[in-house]
């Protein structure tokens, strides 16, 4: 029995919970504590529940399931924590332990396997899915579906998301990207661009603009072969083994190219890449390689600033606010550069919203699997957005971008407001289209 | 343990709020920022005072323990439900916050954050002075129950000095009002002051009237570096007897300076034994002159360096170093025992000396940083909870710190409260008769002992346990 508890402690990374002194400094920054209003859905509360399991007071792990599932994983608590508790590690260990013991029904298991092991890691499968989406949008089927109300009947409230799905580029455009894009003018850095899976499938235009911007500021940009999904969605869902497999594939793929930086434009993916060394800490043959990968991995805003900013020639009308990517802020700790870039736009009317660091409720696929909880958080966010009277909401992560579009849709602000990725806005101001 | 019928009855009483009974919820209300896990039977969240009063009447009838709680930042065990029963999560009562700039008062419900009161007062050019360092998390209800203070206590006093009226649910479930909206009020016993700091053992505060003062227009900071900790203690005494009353006087000893430098290099002199940080507030011309005078006094006592930061950024930089102490020291070892034994100002140098002795005697990691100006030194012990032998030494050291403070004419607690942590030491400070008078008050108010039982008064044989 004692040995079992010791094993469970290890599995849960119990020793990490000891650095929580339960001061409660994480409470004011936790979106779910704010909307759900109880300690059970606070970082301190969740860490305590893990402690209780580790100490044998709670014997049924399923007691943890709801509190852990309803956590956004935004990790704002880590930024607020005065004692440096590794909340993300504790959360992921708890989720993995729950997932391991959970008996999924056959259809759910099959779906999880398909999504996590087949779709996200495969460029070709994602491409196929996106082809379908492209057809759906181009053939007028979308309009028919929307008009007939079929979309409202989709499960998981997917109908809500259908309306905000970005217009995707055509299959041929997506498959015919150059592998090496030269720097405009004098070359400052050679970089690899991490295209991402969802990002590349759904937001290829933003990826293309990112590459154009990088080239514009003096980077030679490489697209690496055999790149795969970053593994973030796997890690957040307790599928740690699969996340490790993907991390190794990416490390190996990017090692092949001689580049100074590996650039991404998605806060969530970037955060995952940023922590490959933690993920592979127990694997000596990979740990050093992971560290080197992490050292090179940067958000696009960092490299744009490092290259001296983006030369811009266009004044853009309207007021702008910035909804931060939690994982860019709290995991990658990139906070200054995006603001610096926004403020460098000539004649910009930039205003910060209240609780600017608070999560929007997107959080990977949280808004799909925990729709109601996510919408409560989004509604809080939109109140603060509205107060700014901004007409453009800038984001730094695809999930946040979709969520902001959804927020605009919910608030019926479609006529006066739009949500953009930082890259799109910068490209607009720099005259790159 | 209360039965199913009681839970059903409670659910009937709570019409507007929530009654939490799930295992995950009960465990989430079983702790505070001190030590120990105590599982409540049920957690209640409601904004309705009438519902709370009815629950207390019910609890009094069936002798069920009632534990009022804010956001559980307590360092003394104040809100811990040590005997099970009901926890009232009063943090949900954050609906009233009115600032009246004619009467110079704020009317607040208990779940309002202390920092929200600060902000609301400042909007009208006023100030609510008590500033516990957890004010962005702590509720005013918790501050009132524990009579909290902070750095500004030196000049402005603590929570009790700013409370002039309360609404309280008695242990019999009656709703009473004490005091009022006037600064002067001598009608009968001062129940307001009795309730403030009674740690929820006499009733539940459901509303408070707080006194506000005009916000000082300007402030200056002085930082002085000392080669000797005892000299820094002397500097503190000397400044305070020179006709100047700073708003804050904070001390960092060598262990805390080194910890900060190791954690986040801030250009602090690691070979110095102490740094004191002084903030002066008031009229711009006055604080400028006072800052110069303070600097002069520090030099005379033997400060090796005195810095008066000029720009707001420089000032912020200096105070940031002080703020980094807490996070820095827990990097050494994870368990932090924060004490708040307090001594008269004249005894600060002697207390510093005794603390060094205790540190060596028990071979513990002891860091001193705190509100030195008011004698509230905050010795912090850094340990590892999983090391039982070390924790035993820590328990002995804590007992000896209390003893030293009392021998020097001081007190067990300057601002954290007694709770469970310091209950075993009460008689040492108060004497048997003094403690008995307090017990008699408790018995008269709450004959069934339902209000926050297990706090302030130790059970026979109760000892400090940090394991």
TrEMBL record, chain A:
UniProt catalytic activity: glycolate + A = glyoxylate + AH2; (R)-lactate + A = pyruvate + AH2
Keywords: 4Fe-4S, Electron transport, Iron, Iron-sulfur, Metal-binding, Repeat, Transport
Keyword Iron-sulfur belongs to the record: yes
Record-listed E.C. numbers: 1.1.99.14
Enzyme type, top EC level: oxidoreductase
InterPro entries recorded: 4Fe4S_Fe-S-bd, 4Fe4S_Fe_S_CS, Cys_rich_dom, Glc_ox_4Fe-4S, Helical_ferredxn
Domain 4Fe-4S ferredoxin-type residue range list: 10-39, 61-85
Pfam families, A to Z: CCG, Fer4_8
Cofactor: [4Fe-4S] cluster
Textual note on the cofactor: Binds 2 [4Fe-4S] clusters.
Described purpose of this protein according to its UniProt entry: Component of a complex that catalyzes the oxidation of glycolate to glyoxylate.
Protein name: Glycolate oxidase iron-sulfur subunit
From TrEMBL, chain B:
Gene Ontology molecular function: (S)-2-hydroxy-acid oxidase activity
Class of this enzyme: oxidoreductase
UniProt protein name: Glycolate oxidase
Domain FAD-binding PCMH-type: 36-215
Cofactor: FAD
Keyword Oxidoreductase among record annotations: yes
EC number in record: 1.1.3.15
Organism placement in taxonomy: Bacteria, Bacillati, Bacillota, Bacilli, Bacillales
Gene3D superfamilies: 3.30.465.10, 3.30.70.2740, Vanillyl-alcohol Oxidase, Chain A, domain 4
Entry annotated with the keyword Flavoprotein: yes
Keywords: FAD, Flavoprotein, Oxidoreductase
């Amino acid at each position: 029995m004692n040995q079992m508890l010791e094993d469970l402690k290890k599995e849960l990374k119990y020793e990490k919970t000891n650095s929580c002194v339960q001061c409660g400094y994480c409470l004011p920054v936790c979106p779910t504590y704010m909307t759900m209003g109880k300690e059970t859905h606070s970082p301190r509360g969740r860490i305590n529940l893990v402690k209780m399991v580790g100490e044998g007071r709670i014997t049924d792990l399923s007691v943890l399931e709801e509190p852990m599932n309803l956590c956004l994983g935004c990790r704002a608590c880590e930024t607020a924590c005065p004692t440096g508790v590794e909340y993300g590690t504790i959360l992921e260990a708890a989720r993995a332990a729950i997932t391991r013991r959970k008996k999924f029904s056959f259809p759910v298991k099959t779906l999880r396997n398909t999504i996590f092991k087949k779709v996200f890691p495969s460029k070709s499968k994602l491409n196929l899915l996106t082809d379908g989406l492209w057809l759906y949008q181009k053939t007028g089927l979308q309009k028919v579906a929307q008009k007939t109300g079929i979309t409202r009947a989709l499960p998981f409230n997917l109908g809500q998301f259908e309306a905000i799905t970005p217009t995707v580029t055509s299959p041929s455009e997506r498959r015919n990207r150059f592998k090496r894009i030269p720097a405009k003018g004098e070359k400052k850095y050679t970089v690899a661009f991490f295209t991402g899976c969802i990002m590349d499938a759904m937001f290829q235009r933003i990826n293309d603009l990112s590459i154009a911007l990088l080239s514009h500021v003096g980077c030679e940009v490489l697209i690496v072969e055999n790149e795969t999904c970053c593994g973030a969605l796997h890690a957040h869902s307790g599928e740690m083994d699969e996340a490790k497999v993907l991390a190794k594939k990416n490390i190996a793929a990017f090692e092949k190219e001689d580049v100074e930086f590996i650039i991404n434009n998605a806060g969530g993916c970037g955060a995952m890449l940023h922590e490959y060394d933690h993920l592979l800490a127990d694997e000596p043959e990979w740990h050093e390689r992971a560290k080197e990968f992490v050292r090179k991995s940067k958000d696009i805003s960092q490299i744009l600033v490092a290259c001296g900013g983006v030369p811009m020639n266009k004044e853009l009308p309207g007021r702008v606010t910035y909804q931060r990517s939690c994982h860019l802020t709290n995991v990658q700790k990139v906070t200054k550069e995006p603001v610096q870039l926004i403020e460098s736009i000539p004649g910009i009317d930039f205003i910060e919203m209240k609780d600017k660091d608070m999560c929007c409720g997107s959080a990977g696929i949280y808004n799909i699997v925990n729709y109601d909880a996510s919408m409560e958080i989004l509604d809080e966010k939109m109140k603060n957005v509205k107060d700014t009277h901004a007409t453009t909401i800038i984001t730094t992560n695809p999930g946040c971008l979709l969520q902001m579009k959804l927020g605009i849709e919910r608030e019926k602000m479609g006529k006066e407001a739009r949500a953009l990725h930082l890259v799109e806005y910068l490209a607009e101001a720099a005259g790159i289209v | 343990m209360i039965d199913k019928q009681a839970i059903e009855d409670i659910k009937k009483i709570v019409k507007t709020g929530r009654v939490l009974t799930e295992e995950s919820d009960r465990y989430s209300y079983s702790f505070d920022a001190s030590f120990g896990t105590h599982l409540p039977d049920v957690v209640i969240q409601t904004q309705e005072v009438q519902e709370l009063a009815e629950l207390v009447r019910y609890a009094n009838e069936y002798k069920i323990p009632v534990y009022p709680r804010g956001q559980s930042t307590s360092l003394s065990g104040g809100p811990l439900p040590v005997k099970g029963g009901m926890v009232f999560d009063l943090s949900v009562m954050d609906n009233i916050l009115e600032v009246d700039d004619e009467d110079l008062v704020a009317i607040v419900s208990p779940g309002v954050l202390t920092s929200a009161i600060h902000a609301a007062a400042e909007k009208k050019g006023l100030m609510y002075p008590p500033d516990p360092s957890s004010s962005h998390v702590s509720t005013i209800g918790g501050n009132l129950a524990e009579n909290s203070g902070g750095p500004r206590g030196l000049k402005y006093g603590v929570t009790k000095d700013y409370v002039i009226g309360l609404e309280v649910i008695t242990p019999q479930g009656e709703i009473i009002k004490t005091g009022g909206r006037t600064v002067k009020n001598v009608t009968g016993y001062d129940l307001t002051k009795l309730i403030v700091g009674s740690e929820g053992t006499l009733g539940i505060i459901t509303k408070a009237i707080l006194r506000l003062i005009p916000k000082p227009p300007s402030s200056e900071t002085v930082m002085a570096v000392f080669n000797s900790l005892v000299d820094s203690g002397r500097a503190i005494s000397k400044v305070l007897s020179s006709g100047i009353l700073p708003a804050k006087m904070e001390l960092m000893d060598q262990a805390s300076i080194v910890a900060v430098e190791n954690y986040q290099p801030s250009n602090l002199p690691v070979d110095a034994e102490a740094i004191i940080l002084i903030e002066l507030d008031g009229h711009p011309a006055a604080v400028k002159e006072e800052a110069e005078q303070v600097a002069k006094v520090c030099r005379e006592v033997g400060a090796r360096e005195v810095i008066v930061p000029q720009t707001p950024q420089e000032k912020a930089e200096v105070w940031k170093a002080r703020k980094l102490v807490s996070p820095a020291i827990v990097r050494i070892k994870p368990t932090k025992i924060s004490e708040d034994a307090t001594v008269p100002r004249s005894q600060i140098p002697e207390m510093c000396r005794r603390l060094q002795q205790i540190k060596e005697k028990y071979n513990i990691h002891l860091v001193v940083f705190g509100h030195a100006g008011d004698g509230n030194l905050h010795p912090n012990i850094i340990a590892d909870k999983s090391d039982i032998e070390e924790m035993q030494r820590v328990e002995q050291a804590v007992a000896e710190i209390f003893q030293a403070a009392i021998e020097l004419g001081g007190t067990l607690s300057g601002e954290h409260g007694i709770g469970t942590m310091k209950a075993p030491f009460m008689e040492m400070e108060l004497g048997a008769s003094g403690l008995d008078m307090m017990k008699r008050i408790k018995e008269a108010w709450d004959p069934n002992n339902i209000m926050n039982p297990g706090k302030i008064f130790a059970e026979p044989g109760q000892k400090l346990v940090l394991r």
